[in-house]
């Protein structure tokens, strides 16, 4: 495993170095991560809201069941049926406990929804900040590339600022230098 860990660390270091050298790619990667987090959080909120709706329906069903048993208890008491009253009261108490648990579960879901919505808001804010930085970096990169192209073209295509007199001067110097070299060669051969 040591070799694999070393190789993994090496690749991570190379990736980090590459991203440091290409900050625009790091911003794009961060933007992609934020988009994924935003999507995941939106899905989580939708799932939690669905669970909350189911929980509310279960609470309503339990409340109706409690009401039904409460009416039965009253009827059994009115009829003097103590043999039915006690088990019905136990059933009602069990339903009340169940309803209380379901209520607590629903409150927990509501809290998680609130936290998830706050997280989503923060993710969206962060994504906007990173998007602004990425746009600024892209603009700067584009301007830098344009400037480099201009500078490169200036070196490739030097501006000829010499007039025709300058060209005549160049020609005179060439002739004089050539004649000077010929004279030098003649002297060297004559020795």
Task: Write structural notes for this entry.
- The protein has helices at residues 2-21, 23-78, 82-156, 164-190.
- It is mainly alpha-helical and 191 residues long.
- The protein has a single domain (2-143), classed as Helix Hairpins (Orthogonal Bundle).
- The radius of gyration is 42 Å and the shape is rod-shaped.
- The chain starts with a helix and ends with a helix.
- It comes from Richelia sinica FACHB-800.
- Residues 134-172 are annotated as: Disordered.
- Residues 134-149 have a biased composition (Low complexity).
Topology:
Layout: H1 2-21, H2 23-78, H3 82-156, H4 164-190
Biased composition (Polar residues): 150-164
Region (Disordered): 134-172
Biased composition (Low complexity): 134-149
Counting structural domains, the number is 1
In DSSP terms (H or I, runs of 4 or more residues), the helix count works out at 4
Helix content: over 70%
What percentage of amino acids are in beta strands?
under 5%
- CATH architectural group: Orthogonal Bundle
Cα radius of gyration in angstroms: 42 Å
Total strands: 0
CATH fold node name: Helix Hairpins
Q: How far apart, in Å, are the first and last alpha carbons?
A: 81 Å
Structural class designation: mainly alpha
Shape: rod-shaped
* Major sheet description: none
Low-confidence stretches: none
Biased composition (Polar residues): 150-164
InterPro entries: CHP04376, PspA_VIPP1
Biased composition (Low complexity): 134-149
Organism: Richelia sinica FACHB-800
């Amino acid at each position: 495993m040591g070799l694999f860990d070393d190789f993994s660390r090496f690749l991570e270091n190379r990736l980090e170095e590459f991203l440091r050298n290409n900050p625009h790619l790091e911003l794009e990667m961060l933007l992609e991560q934020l988009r994924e987090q935003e999507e995941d959080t939106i899905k989580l909120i939708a799932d939690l809201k669905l669970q909350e709706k189911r929980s509310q329906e279960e609470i309503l069903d339990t409340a109706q069941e409690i009401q039904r048993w409460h009416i039965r208890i009253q009827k059994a008491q009115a009829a003097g049926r103590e043999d039915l009253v006690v088990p019905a009261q136990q059933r009602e108490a069990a339903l009340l406990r169940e309803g209380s648990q379901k209520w607590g579960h629903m409150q927990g879901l509501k809290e998680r929804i609130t936290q998830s919505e706050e997280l989503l808001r923060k993710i969206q804010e962060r994504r906007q900040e990173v998007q602004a930085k990425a746009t600024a970096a892209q603009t700067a990169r584009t301007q830098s590339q344009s400037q480099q192209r201009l500078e490169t073209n200036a070196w490739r295509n030097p501006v000829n600022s010499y007039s025709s007199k300058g060209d005549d001067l160049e020609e005179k110097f060439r002739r004089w230098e050539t004649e000077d070299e010929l004279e030098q060669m003649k002297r060297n051969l004559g020795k």
